[in-house]
Write a sequence for this structure.
């Protein structure tokens, strides 16, 4: 069964030489006393520390970027703020609001009893993934995850009032993940999640194991959404092996219209009047694809390539000069020519061939755009939806920090 997926990557960029810093102090919003041992990190990176006894923290030697700063502590509301690092600015004063040691939703509606026993496997399947790598990616504290299933809406939601701890021995990372959203819509086959991970390299003395991690990281990066976004930003789609085409949804009325049109064209050709027809190649391609659409299918992918400059624009913003804006209507199909569909994915999707190249349909929420950055991150991730390979592959088991750079060819 195919599930559409919404995923979130933070907005960052790191291809500059400036060495800057972020510093601040964390206090209780009620007592104004400093808070020690609070988790402070830059999401999707390996950059994180605990506040000292004075509530202070500092990240030095940063490049000119845009981050999401995450501040989290048990019994306090989480604090998340996007922050641009263009120059060494004034220290931040972060006031954390105390809260009960339960999530607010429990006051309105209780969590499912024995939720992990009932929904744990679903959680791991949709969140960690079903790839070979997922088998060696373990959630170390599953007891903190709570579930609520709404039978009226047929939706499952998961919550955690503590940071989730994952150990991924497939890629060599320990991941601390602050979960913000997890929802499966069983009726519409949609899955979305949002959160803020902090990565830590696992240590190993085994050269073979370290080599394996590097090779698997490189393989996962190829054809990933981050690989695509970096290629899109730098206008390197062709060099990196990506193609983009338009996808059109075809209803029965359109099918009947095209069938009649093709029939009429064929009659004119048979009557010797074909030379009088003036049909451009793009239209002819569309007619043929719709006329030959398989039973039960409602989409066709056109042959004409979409150019990058037709939907990527400079923001011309002095506040965010390194971002690029992406806007398009309808559905695009992204194809990565240098990788075939993995065996596990082929087995999970009917009528899919192992010889097919990796491909994903992407579309934006109505009237929404996203901003992309040099390192392949984009904002806001909830406004970009995927259907296909990325909805299957982009899970916790394949996550890597934004600092990751692939091994040169």
């Amino acid at each position: 069964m195919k599930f559409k997926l919404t995923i979130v990557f933070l907005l960052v960029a790191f291809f500059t030489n400036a060495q800057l810093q972020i510093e601040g102090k964390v206090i209780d919003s009620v007592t104004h006393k400093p808070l020690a041992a609070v988790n402070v990190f830059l999401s999707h990176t390996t950059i994180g520390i605990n506040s000292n006894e004075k509530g202070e923290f500092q990240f030095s030697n940063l490049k000119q970027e845009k981050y999401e700063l995450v501040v989290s502590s048990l019994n306090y509301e989480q604090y998340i703020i996007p922050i641009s690092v263009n120059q060494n600015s004034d220290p931040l004063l972060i006031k954390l609001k105390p809260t009960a040691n339960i999530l607010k939703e429990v006051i309105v509606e209780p969590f499912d009893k024995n939720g992990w026993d009932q929904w744990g496997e679903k959680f791991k399947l949709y969140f960690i993934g079903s790839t070979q790598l997922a088998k060696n990616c373990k959630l170390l504290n599953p007891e903190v995850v709570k579930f609520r299933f709404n039978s009226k809406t047929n939706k499952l939601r998961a919550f955690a009032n503590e940071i989730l701890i994952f150990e991924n021995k497939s890629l060599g990372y320990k991941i601390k993940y602050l979960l913000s959203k997890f929802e499966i819509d069983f009726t519409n086959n949609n899955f979305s999640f949002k959160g803020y991970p902090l990565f830590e390299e696992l240590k190993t003395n085994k050269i073979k194991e370290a080599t394996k991690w590097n090779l698997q990281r490189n393989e996962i990066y190829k054809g990933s959404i981050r690989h695509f976004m970096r290629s899109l930003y730098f206008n390197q789609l062709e060099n990196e092996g990506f193609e983009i085409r338009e996808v059109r949804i075809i209803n029965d009325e359109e099918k009947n219209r095209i069938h009649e049109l093709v029939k009429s064209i064929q009659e004119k050709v048979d009557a010797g009047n074909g030379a009088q027809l003036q049909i451009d190649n793009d239209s002819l391609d569309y007619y043929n694809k719709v006329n030959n659409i398989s039973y039960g299918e409602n989409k066709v992918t056109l042959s004409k390539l979409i150019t990058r400059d037709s939907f990527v624009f400079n923001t011309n913003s002095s506040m965010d000069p390194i971002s690029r804006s992406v806007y398009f209507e309808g559905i695009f199909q992204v194809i990565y020519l240098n990788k075939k569909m993995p065996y596990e994915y082929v087995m999970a999707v009917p009528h899919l061939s192992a010889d097919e190249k990796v491909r994903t349909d992407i579309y934006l929420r109505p009237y929404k755009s996203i901003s992309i950055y040099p390192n392949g991150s984009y904002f806001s991730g909830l406004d970009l939806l995927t259907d296909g390979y990325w909805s299957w592959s982009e899970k916790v088991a394949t996550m890597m920090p934004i600092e990751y750079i692939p091994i040169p060819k």
User: Anything to note?
Assistant: The chain is about 20% helix and 35% strand.
